[in-house]
Design a protein that fits this description.
heterodimer; A: alpha/beta; B: Non-ribosomal Peptide Synthetase Peptidyl Carrier Protein, Chain A; cytoplasm (chain B); Acyl carrier protein (chain B)
């Protein structure tokens, strides 16, 4: 028995691929042979992805995408299908935070996080699903957060979206399992990215003391779990939330 | 060019994995041809592609047999 993780001839769409966890996921899927479309919110970000892929010998390109705009998504998918074929691997990674205590939270802070982190997962997944059902093969992987399970003061909006995508994944997994499509959620803990670099030192130390493995995770350690789920090796896993957090939260 | 009947029957057979000779006009997708709810959604999408049209959800729900599909296409594209 060998572990089959090759993604040759597969087209993968990774949202939010310009940096952090999304960049590591895009690069890892590319290194396993997938043609990767990595999206960024700006044209400059998309160009950086294209350059990074070229440098690493990865097949694919960076593209501009605003996951909150249906037109932006339609334009992207049309060009991707024409140039590369329809994506059969979708990694919903793009996400934002707008932290605030609930009593101070503004409606916009709530709405923007819901739209970008949760409604966009609905939007992008729906747009890709038809081609996956036709192909009778597909992988949908949502990047969530440990916060969606354990909660975090100041992140009620963010946590709601992250718990939301896990429920979305379970329901969709039940809907499309008969078409050879798996739908899973990967919930990272405290990962060393720009999103966590902004935390104050005291808060970082407090968090670290709660991680049995005693260190932050690397983006590549999330990417490897995503790659497993995307490959044939992970073909019997569906509807699941996989926690990758160094033991910070054990479900 | 095949007739609308033939094209509809061919798509139904392909989508539901049944023999074309079993796709009789009166056949119900769910009761006679073994379709589940996802099959019927995919079938309508396949018809939309074949006939380059959009079938509204409230109309799609009424298309439950082969003949109803043929009738819908004829009425709306004829």
């Amino acid at each position: 028995m060998t572990l089959t993780t090759s993604l040759n001839d597969k087209v993968a769409l990774v949202t939010g691929a310009s940096r952090g966890i999304g960049a590591a996921i895009a690069d890892t899927l590319g290194a396993l042979g997938a043609t990767v479309i990595g999206t960024a919110t700006s044209a400059a970000g998309a160009e950086k992805i294209t350059a990074r892929f070229a440098e690493k010998g990865i097949s694919g390109v960076g593209k501009e995408l605003d996951v909150t705009r249906a037109e932006s998504l339609a334009t992207l998918l049309e060009s991707v299908k024409k140039d590369f074929g329809a994506p059969v691997i979708l990694v919903n990674n793009a996400g934002i935070t707008k932290d605030n205590l609930l009593m101070r939270m503004k409606d916009e802070e709530w709405a923007e996080v819901i739209d970008t982190n949760l409604s966009a997962v609905y939007r992008v997944t729906k747009a890709c699903l038809r081609d996956m059902t036709k192909a009778r093969w597909g992988r949908i992987i949502n990047i969530s957060s440990v916060v969606g399970s354990m909660g975090n003061a100041g992140q009620s909006n963010y946590a709601a979206t992250k718990a939301g995508v896990a429920g979305f994944a379970r329901s969709l997994a039940a809907e499309v399992g008969s078409r050879g499509i798996t739908v899973n959620t990967v919930a990272p803990g405290f990962i060393d990215t720009d999103m966590t670099k902004v935390l104050p030192e005291a808060q970082r130390e407090a968090l670290m003391s709660r991680i049995p493995l005693g260190r932050l995770g690397a983006p590549e350690e999330i990417a490897s779990v995503v790659a497993f789920l995307a490959s044939d090796a992970g073909g019997y896993v569906t509807g699941e939330t996989i926690h990758v957090n160094g033991g910070m939260y054990m479900a | 060019m095949s007739s609308i009947e033939e094209r509809v029957k061919k798509i139904v057979a392909e989508q539901l994995g049944v023999k074309e000779e079993d796709v009789k006009p009166e056949a119900s997708f769910v009761e006679d041809l073994g379709a589940d709810s996802l099959d019927t959604v995919e079938l309508v999408m396949a018809l939309e592609e074949e006939f380059e049209t959009e079938i509204p959800d409230e109309e799609a729900e009424k298309i439950t047999t082969v003949q109803l599909a043929i009738d819908y296409i004829k009425e709306n594209l004829g």
